[in-house]
Structures are given as C-alpha cells and as structure tokens.
Amino acid sequence: MKVLGNIRDVQQHVKQVKKEGRTVGFVPTMGYLHEGHLKLIETARSENDIVILSIFVNPLQFGAGEDLDTYPRDEERDRNLAEEHGVDVLFLPTTAMMYPEPMSIQLSVTKRTDVLCGKSRPGHFDGVAAVLTKLFNIVMPDQAYFGMKDAQQVAVVDALINDFNYDIQLVPVATVREEDGLAKSSRNVHLTAGERDEAPAIQESLQAGRQMVEDGERSPARIIESVTKFLESRTRGRIDYIELLSYPELTSVDVIDRPVILAAAVFYEKARLIDNVVFDRNGKITTG
Amino acid sequence: MKVLGNIRDVQQHVKQVKKEGRTVGFVPTMGYLHEGHLKLIETARSENDIVILSIFVNPLQFGAGEDLDTYPRDEERDRNLAEEHGVDVLFLPTTAMMYPEPMSIQLSVTKRTDVLCGKSRPGHFDGVAAVLTKLFNIVMPDQAYFGMKDAQQVAVVDALINDFNYDIQLVPVATVREEDGLAKSSRNVHLTAGERDEAPAIQESLQAGRQMVEDGERSPARIIESVTKFLESRTRGRIDYIELLSYPELTSVDVIDRPVILAAAVFYEKARLIDNVVFDRNGKITTG
C-alpha cells in the first residue's frame, strides 16, 4: 500500500493508472475506521482495479461547538486496517495542504440540507461539498463510495456530482447492522445496557412504516404517526425527528408516488442515533 | 473536427484520449470568435495533442439588464473558424443540458471580484466559476487557455483551480492588439473615427505607468495620478476606473513590491473599452 501525503503525488499516480486503462474506486473518510468504512472499502475493492482511501478530518464541515478537536483519531490502526483490506493508496493530507489559505470560492448547498440532520447543522454540508470537490479533483475516481447510514450526505453528493458534471459514479452502500438490526455506529458504545436493548426499535419502526407502504398506504402523515407511536412504545429515547421525504431530492411529499426516505433520529442519554430506510412508491427497498 | 453536443460524449472521448496518453488543451468561449479567441486556439494547438473548443453563452454570468438575449451568435462562422484553426472537438452544449434544473450548489467568488470590472457586475464571476467548474469536469483538460484582456477572469480562474485542486495548467495568453496598440475587441466597431484615433492612448497610458515603475517609482497613488492625467490629455473618453492592484490576488497595495496589474476602463459614446498591463515590482511585463 502506498501512503501519500501530497496532493500532486496522488494526481500523478492516478494519471498513470488511467493511462493504463485501470479504474479507480474512492472511499473518502475522516478515519477512525469501523465496519461501515470497511464495507465501503470491500465494495470498492470488488468493483475497481485501484482503491484509494482518504483520511482527512475536514474542519470545514464542523460547526462552532461541534467536536472537531475531540474527533477520534488512530492513524496507525487505520493504516493497518486499510492495508489488510486491500487499499492501494492511502491519502493522508494535512489541513495546511488542503486549506493553505481560506478559500476564495465558497460553496453553498441550497437544496437537500434544511431537513433531517441538516436542520441542526447549518453549514455542515457546505463543508462536505467543499472537501469533496477538492478530493474528487485530486483522486479523479471512476466510482466513489458512501454509506447509506448518512443518506442525506449521499443525497448531497448526488447533487454535487450532477451539478458539477463529475464523471464519477456514486455508489451508495447499505448500512452495516448488528444481528438485531441496530445500525453499526461508533456511538453505540455510549448506550446503557437498557438503551442498547431498545435501540433496534429504531430500524424496526422504520421497517414497519415501509411495510405500511408495501401494504398500500400512501399518506406520509399517517405513516409518520404510526412510526412515532411504534417507536415511543418501544424505547424511552427522545425522538429528535421522524421524517418522510422524496429521495434523493429530500423534499416533502403529500402522497407517496416516488422513491422516498423514511428517517429517524433519537436522543439517548449519551448518544444520538440516526437510521433510515429508502424505498420506492410500492415499499420496495431501493438503496441501503 | 468532431462536433459534440452531449456532455457524456465529450467525457467518453476525453477518457479515450487520456488512455492513449495524449494531452488535452481547452479553450472555453461564448462564441462569435474573434482574433483573440483564434490566438487562444493557436496557442492550445501548439501545446497539446488534442484541442477542445467550447461555445456556450452562459446565462449564469449575465446580470439583470445585461445583454444575454442580444449577445452575438454565428454558429456556422464559428464552426468554420474552429475547423480552419485545427480544433479537434467543438463542444456545443445547450442551456438545457448545462442547467437541466437550477443548481443545488451555489458558488460565490468572495475574493478578487470587488475590484476592476467586478465592482459593476455583481454575481458575474459566480456564474463564470459555476460554468467553468462544470466545463472542467466535462473536458478534463491538461491545460486551459484564457486571454489576458480579461485579466480579472484569469485571476478568478486561478483561484478556482487552486481552491478546488484542479489538475489543470492555466495558460494566460497575451492580448491581441491592432498595429497601433489598441486591444482587439468586438466592441471597437462601435467607436467613432475620432474615438478610434484616440483609443490607443489607453494602452499607451498604462505602458507609461509601467515605465514609471521600471524607472524606480513604487507608489501606486503617484502612478495612477500620472496615468489619469496622461489619459485625460489624450482622449475625450470618460474614465470608468484606473486601478493598480496586486496580481493575481487583486488586493490594493501601498507600495509596489510584488507583481501587479495596472488596468483601465474607458467609456466612449457607444462602447466601454478595457485594457491592462501586468508587471513585476521592477516594471518588467510578466503576463499578457
């Protein structure tokens, strides 16, 4: 595995790879790799000649009061995991290299952001779009891999690729789950034993909502009402939101007549968990 | 010459070209080609294996009340000129193809724009940045060619390439001039005979300012004062601005201790002419 810290080196390497007619799969991360990331790497590995993994904790996507300084890092463990999972190039840029000075050109994501988690993280997706614009131009991948756990991020990447005409295939990868259905998350360790027992109810409630659509229901309001009741009856966690929106546009719908996302966020004592399910107008799961 | 109207077709073609190890030079234009454009094409032709010319009148860079609807077009003449000058691929996208819907991601150029012509064209360079971001991702050039006549545009493209880490060499090309030094412009035809006689004074005045630096002057204020007097004595045109700024940062300078641009805009009866000269701290011309 090549470990590169220099933007030019990555670009030179990728140019050579492309001259050889080989394809590049890209997994952008902020490091502290968990099973979700490894699934992205494995998927990229199976679909491309070359896999490039980037690890960069992007300051632009952290808001004031968010956990930039305490964001967990373990470079040595990440390197080993990357190598074990067949990564060809590990790109580890510094902040000084990515942002040698404040950018002259600001990106504002004006759609798909004022819903779900975006509501409480103003500017977050602007920072995501900025770093991905840079990373896409550095890595020049054929395919880029993102986890459906953060479905809103996938929707924003979809907008970025379409708006800017990137010749990149976005590959959303299904959320990795525990045996009982709880979405894997580094935050799950913060759950008490009781909370951990209840947390699978989040995905269960979303699946129950999806099942309603499969059974003929087309009203978002009735589905959200039902999912809310279900979830409240199964956990003491405080519901932050349960939303049903078109996907990937993330606009509100009066009737389910197109692909949608049903998503929830729940506060526990020391962790806020999110999960979602994406399905078509007939309740058939389409992504994730 | 290949004439392509489809974004995908251009991307497929360029991918193939790159696999063959050939280099791509790109000349983005709004058409109605004149000698300035032809010089860009010729320069690109001499420095690359493949030359791609785009013609697209970009609505995003026209402000309210600007001349989008009356912007001159002559596709047949442009096609012939492109073919005669050795263009390999002429890319002619429609507005519907470039902007199938309003973009979800807005670009704001926050530096290099509140000076020179940018002052009177709010949002203009945001539109330029948006279309170039798209075109760069479609054409994926090794080198991109821009005329120094619009030095501020060159400065903004420089910022775009640096900020977004495009692996593209920006090639500024010297302004094409009439024998008496007047910068070529499609707007020159709107000058009266008397105005046409006087107009070379614009470049003469800027060169006189540059000569002051070569002779040891380092004060922008004294140079601007002198250039203004010179120009006022040589033409009845009304001066819009004469500015001396760092280049390519386009920030004001107290003393000339770095590369700078000395630029002017002059209103005549039916035309507003612009011109500039870029030189180093010793008055030596560096670009353009």
TrEMBL record, chains A, B:
Residues reported to bind beta-alanine: Q61
Recorded metabolic or biological pathway in which this protein acts: Cofactor biosynthesis; (R)-pantothenate biosynthesis; (R)-pantothenate from (R)-pantoate and beta-alanine: step 1/1
Reactions catalysed: (R)-pantoate + beta-alanine + ATP = (R)-pantothenate + AMP + diphosphate + H(+)
UniProt cross-references to Pfam families, sorted A to Z: Pantoate_ligase
Active-site residues from the entry: H37 (proton donor)
Enzyme Commission numbers on file: 6.3.2.1
Compartment(s) where it occurs, according to its Swiss-Prot or TrEMBL record: Cytoplasm
Keyword Nucleotide-binding belongs to the record: yes
General function of this protein: Catalyzes the condensation of pantoate with beta-alanine in an ATP-dependent reaction via a pantoyl-adenylate intermediate.
Oligomeric form and interacting partners: Homodimer.
Family: Belongs to the pantothenate synthetase family.
Descriptive protein name: Pantothenate synthetase
Organism field: Halobacillus kuroshimensis
Lineage of origin: Bacteria, Bacillati, Bacillota, Bacilli, Bacillales
